[in-house]
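Before a colleague's protein record goes any further, I have to sign it off. Thanks in advance; the entry in question is below:
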Amino acid sequence: MDKKGSFKPVVIIMIISLLIASLWDKWLVIKNTAHSILNPTAGALLNWDVTWGMIIIIFGISIIMTLAQKYGTDQKTIKEIKDEQKRIQKEMKEVKNNPEKVMEFQKELMPLTMELMKHSMRPIVYTGIPIILFFRWFSDYFAVFETPVKFLGIFSWFWFYLIGSIIFSTILRKIFKVH
């Protein structure tokens, strides 16, 4: 990938991820390979204790995602872009009663936002496919229970994962100083 960033690899990985997700039950080699890797690892954790096992899995995935974000992106450039965005937003607040000036600042902000998105989405190239495989595997794993598994009495596996990953990722991003 070039220094400026490109959406092309991200789009390719997203397309491959969608193919994997949609062909999961048709191309059994994908499903069987994922199950042969994840059943004895993540499955063993969930079989040991479904809640604590899921917490450990979420934490592990969050660490991997955070490290991919830190080392798969140009942190210095991202920080510079965010600082520039903050400066422009501060100036926008100062002229909020002048719609023409606000529009000028918004025009200045748009390319920065797109550039930040290019840089921030790079880790998807490294993590997109494994995450899709995990999600499909989770779906299979929890589908075999006669009664739906509820984490903390109310959350499905998806919502528990989503909330847990947000919490862990927020903490880990601060610890690893990820911008």
Summary: The CA atoms of residues 9 and 125 lie 6 Å apart. The chain has two domains: 1-73+123-179, 76-121. Residues 76-121 form one domain. The mean pLDDT is 91.
